[in-house]
Design goal:
The protein is of the alpha/beta class. The protein has five helices and eight strands, in the order αβαββαβαβββαβ. It binds 5'-O-(N-(L-cysteinyl)-sulfamoyl)adenosine.
Length: 159
């Protein structure tokens, strides 16, 4: 089945399988580039979409991944306080270099490098979430517990 996926989506499917997860990547004709688009494409609430937002430490220049509910805006001050340095939104080239994926498809695992990761605590309100799977047309369904397990992220209040 997974050989019908595009290369980037297949990479995510294989990383899930390697972790022993039975979660299934689906590639859709409709765009899942943004959280509202993804919610529309899979038929869920926008809050159930896991946004993968890459920031950069202003001092360290290191990447930070925030896995945020599609319903929320990230309060950069809250992340900065936890990290101990201010952060800024990464640009498209930085996202690609740090994660190995393009904006709109950045998954919560299988990243190019190990990236410090935080998970929006409001995602735990839902039984089911949907996250990006490598391309702006690929997603997979998972639970909040799955998200913790595959991302290694720590929970944070982001709003
Ligand atoms: N596929 C969906 C989730 S299933 C997804 O990836 N959503 S996302 O929100 O994580 O990715 C799009 C996000 O990338 C936008 O919310 C926005 O914060 C960010 N973004 C979009 N364009 C740019 C850009 N030019 N530079 C930096 N960040 C951008």
């Amino acid at each position: 089945m997974s050989n019908t996926l595009s290369a980037s989506a297949r990479k995510v499917q294989e990383a899930l399988a390697a972790r022993g997860m039975v979660l299934k990547v689906v590639e859709l004709p409709a765009s899942t580039h943004s959280a509202p688009e993804a919610a529309q494409a899979v038929g869920c609430q926008v809050g159930q979409i896991v946004k993968s937002l890459v920031f950069r430490g202003k001092q360290s220049r290191k990447a930070v991944l925030i896995l945020a509910s599609g319903a929320n805006r990230v309060n950069e001050q809250a992340i900065a306080a936890r990290l101990g340095e201010p952060i800024e939104k990464a640009d498209a080239d930085f996202v690609r270099a740090a994660t190995g994926f393009a904006i709109g498809g950045v998954p919560p695992l299988a990243l190019e490098r190990e990236i410090e990761t935080f998970i929006d605590e409001t995602l735990f309100r839902y039984d089911e979430l949907w996250a990006a799977a490598g391309t702006p047309h690929a997603v997979f369904r998972l639970s909040p517990a799955d998200l913790v397990r595959i991302s290694g992220g720590r929970t944070i209040a982001i709003t």
